[in-house]
Amino acid sequence: MKTNLGVIFGSRTCEHDVSIITGLQAAMAADPAQYDVTRIYISREGDWYIGEKLSDMTFFLNFDLTQATHVLPAAEKGKLLLLEYPTEKKKLFGGGRTVLATIDVALPAMHGLNGEDGTLQGMLELMNVPYTSSGVMGSAVGMDKIVMKKLFRGCGFPVLPDTWAERAEWEDDRNAVIARAEKEVGYPMFVKPANLGSSIGISRANDREGLIRAMDIAVSYDRRVLIEKGVTEIEEVNCSAMGYAGDVRVSETEMPVRWDDKELLDFSEKYLRGQGGKGMSALKRQIPAPVSEEKLREIKRLTAEVFREMDCRGVVRIDYIIDKAEDKLYLGEINIIPGSLAFYLWEPVGVSFKQLIDHMVTDALKAWADKNKSVFSYNSNILSAVRNGTKAAKMAGEKEK
User: Fold this and answer.
1) What gap in Å lies between CA 124 and CA 313, rounded to an integer?
2) pTM of the model
3) Which of 125, 263, 283, 323 has the most CB atoms around it within 10 Å of its CB?
4) Judging by beta carbons within 10 Å of its beta carbon (0-12, 13-18, 19+), is residue 280 exposed, middle or buried?
């Protein structure tokens, strides 16, 4: 019997278009002999759609959502139900619900806010539907760069010096923010919106003028901004992990290669350079990363350790920074749902994209079964006590009369 797999993508996020690519890649990679795949698109307005047209990349170039089916999410007995959106006629005269699709396992292919950050995961938890990404806590921490670095630092992981600021603070007293950044971080520095990925809104500041410009850009995307020490002689290495609980597997490593001599691997480098809809899989890279065996061992060890500390599941990608001048390794960030699900890091160790989907679904069902072993009810007398207390108080009041 096939598993009904719902691949969810899009949503209200700056990374909406990147999510479409990852979602369509994942849906295409799923083995048709094992899965009946439903592509679930969430629009920029937060509306849910399904339909055959959503399998065609060109459909998203000229949106015509009248050619897709508007649905409402619901749940029943651990399944995600996609219901026919009520028309004005049905709203007026009533009528039973029509279930258009039933989902056994949800595969979030989301990037950024309103999907990768624990919001979608929280909804699926409330519905008790199995899903393939990290849970609410891991997703939320993995999305917020400020909280993420605090956790990394608390775990003793090597991270670069940083500080942070809020949009309101920048608007009220930018001189105080500048003074703190120069004292605690120093130039050069990177300024990053706390809750964005794909390098959107990130700028490098080499002086005060650059910092002001970078802060103005960052606060336009997010109300919280991370200010992090920049590394002049930098190498970047990425590594992926997948699994659940104590079963953690680690991928091959990669070193992304810049097309130009840029200070930052930006959005256009990652997604627009001749990729033809291939997302992160088209980025030029060296696999395995050309660094020492000692560094590779340390990166893989840290990758598994971060995965466990953050209680992750599914597939994540962790990005590292090597300061070549000081020969030091730093933990950069974790991507809870990486672009293209980082399948290109698993193929070199013998795991195809199709098998990667299988592992994710298996781990999702393990986590779901494990969760359902927990007790979710507690029989107490509190409601009876409140009722009896209210009744007694009412009787006492009547006697006084």
Assistant:
1) 15
2) 0.88
3) 283
4) buried
